[in-house]
Amino acid sequence: MDDDISADVNILSQYLSRPDVASLSSVGQVDCIVLCVSSVLYSAQTVFDTLVQQPSLTKTLVLCGGLGHSTELVHKAVALHPTFKSIAAEICGLPEAQVLYAIWNSFYASQVDPSAAPRILIEDRSTTCATNATEARKLLEASAPRSIVVIQDPTMVRRTVACFDRVYSDMAQPPTILGCPIFVPRVKCDGTSGQLAYETPPVNEALMWKMDRFLQLVMGEIPRLRDDENGYGPKGNGSIVHVDIPDEVEQAYTRLAGKIAHRR
């Protein structure tokens, strides 16, 4: 049964991650990178590592995230991180974007020539994916970017890009908006315990989501993406553009919902 569960989880994860950009190092120069915080700090770490090596990758870096329901998890992730934990006391209570900025300033900024580094904008008022997009656009009005790469928690990239598409939908020529999850999480059935585990995680599993949390995130996204009265599309609360959910994804979601309910 767990083998079947892992297959369905991976179908959802691949879809939700929306890896338009598989690798930052190969994307070429873009006008703007929007980095939304994730409690899996590997994403931010990869962005910052890449900018140290390729500071001309983007003209503008927007760090997104205010005080929301996941902020405490971000603070805990900093405290657990083998390197970043040294600033855990300093970032306690800060909005998520300010946490990212503190990490950049403490561990990366000194490695980049200030004249080559991208302009960094702090968006620390948003509390949802939708307000990530609306608040980021306000900051970017003057620069009018033509290309934006959105980096978000892999479980929420597709929805966040749909939020940005909605926010820019009033423009005759909106910017090209691409999703980048940094990595696509995959799970497998652990042959020893019979439980789900991450398949080749990019970091120690202690720095990943707890498995229950990951499943909760993945399962919570499909209802949000649906364009019905309960979803976030135009027929629902209107915070995202219409999203087509493939039949394969809907079927995997339905099977997985039944299996998870049966296991409880």
TrEMBL record:
It holds the Pfam family DUF218. Residues 117-171 form the DUF218 domain. It comes from the Eukaryota. GO terms for cellular component: plasma membrane. Gene3D superfamilies: HUPs, YdcF like domain. InterPro entries: Cell_Envelope_Assoc (IPR051599), DUF218 (IPR003848), Rossmann-like_a/b/a_fold (IPR014729). This is DUF218 domain-containing protein. It comes from Neurospora tetrasperma (strain FGSC 2508 / ATCC MYA-4615 / P0657).
